[in-house]
Amino acid sequence: MNIMSSESDEVSVNRRRSSTRRQHRFRIGSSSNDVTGASEDEAQPVRLRVRGKYMKYSSDQKNMFIRLYEEGQSIKDAASLAGLTWGTGKFLVMKYKRNGSELTEQGRGGPRGKKLNQNVLDAIESLVEENPGITLKEMKSILASRNIILSKSTIDNGLRLLKITLKIASKEVDRMNSPESIRRRREYALRFNEWAPTERGNLVFIDESGFNLHLRRTQARSRKNSRAVVTVPTIRGRNTTLIMAMNNQAVIHFKVIPIGNCNAIRFNEFLTELSSKLQHHRDTYLVMDLK
What we know:
Structural class: alpha+beta
Helix content: 25-40%
CATH class of one domain: Mainly Alpha
Organism: Lygus hesperus (Western plant bug)
Radius of gyration: 43 Å
Number of helices: 9
Protein name: 3-isopropylmalate dehydratase small subunit
Order of helices and strands: HHHHHHHHEEEHE
Low-confidence stretches: 1-8, 23-38
GO molecular function: nucleic acid binding
Subcellular location: Nucleus
Pfam families: DDE_3, HTH_28
CATH topology of one domain: Arc Repressor Mutant, subunit A
Largest sheet: 4 strands, mixed
Mean pLDDT: 76
Distance between the termini: 98 Å
CATH architecture of one domain: Orthogonal Bundle
């Protein structure tokens, strides 16, 4: 394949372009009205050239230009016959020579592949269900072992789509929801349903709970890049215990123990006070935790 060059034509075109630049060049002096080489009346404002939109050429035009160029036409003549500009023709020749006499089309945009499809989202959700405390780094490593390559930011976006957020974890003892515990709770619920009275208001539930008055939140707000500090007393306050009896309608009786925990003596005192309030209630059942 013989490709003829047209250096003389390119040199002549460059000379004409340089001459055009010299004709439109102005040298501005110290004053805005002082234009070198022209009087004040003859001075004209400098015209700024604004680049227009890029022209789009079809593959047929480009192939036609290359064919004419191979047949011996100059870049200027081949571009004119193919409906291209001289600059576009020069760029095509350079690209043609660089690719080894082959003109390849360059891809333009198009939709990107969607990484977070339904299968990937299901895999991320299953990881969180198996281990709620898993980190983004750990998820990235596990997914990579399954040939799912994702960045940590993409995984975080997937969690947002699944509406899975990071929050303070609630600790739960593993034996509370063990199969044995679930079985025992089910048996108790069946027995309770057998002997419980039809009037559910006759069931009085009793329980006690201890708490501290100097509780503080585990989260706080502060400015960015600064610590969130919450002031707490130097000496932690003593625990307070609350005992309460209630049915499905209202609280029947309660007692606050300001200092110390609930022992047998204090609990018996609470039952005595409760019995005095239940004198007019018949067939009352007390439900409490014996532990």
